[in-house]
């Protein structure tokens, strides 16, 4: 039973390392800076996020900004 749990945690860790390895350290800091300056996130909030949680918030924020740009373009 313990071996099975250990393998699951190992696989999960490996999954996140592979899937989230596309972000460079430079991009990580730039994104944090922009989120703090323009969207009022605190550094504590950003550092407390799980990697997948951060990806979800960034994806939602990107969709929001694209929708806002489409609305502005349609209006003027």
Short descriptors:
mainly alpha
Question: What this model shows, in words?
Answer:
It is built from four helices and no strands. The termini are far apart. The protein has a domain at 24-76. The chain is elongated. Helix content is 84%, strand content 0%. The chain has 76 residues and is an all-alpha fold.
What is the global morphology?
A: elongated
Helix content estimate: over 70%
Termini gap: 63 Å
Strand content: under 5%
**Tally of DSSP helical segments:** 4
Report the average pLDDT across residues.
82
Secondary-structure-derived class: mainly alpha
Oligomeric composition of the shown chains: single chain
Write the element-wise H/E pattern from the N-terminal end onward.
HHHH
Low-confidence stretches: none
Largest sheet: none
Total number of β-strand segments? 0
Based on CA atoms alone, the radius of gyration comes out at 17 Å
């Amino acid at each position: 039973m313990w071996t099975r749990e250990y393998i699951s945690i190992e696989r999960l860790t490996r999954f996140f390392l592979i899937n989230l390895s596309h972000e460079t350290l430079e991009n990580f800091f730039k994104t944090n800076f922009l989120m703090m300056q323009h969207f009022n996130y605190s550094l504590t909030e950003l550092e407390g996020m799980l990697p997948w949680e951060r990806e979800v918030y960034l994806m939602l924020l990107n969709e929001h900004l694209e929708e806002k740009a489409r609305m502005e373009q349609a209006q003027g």
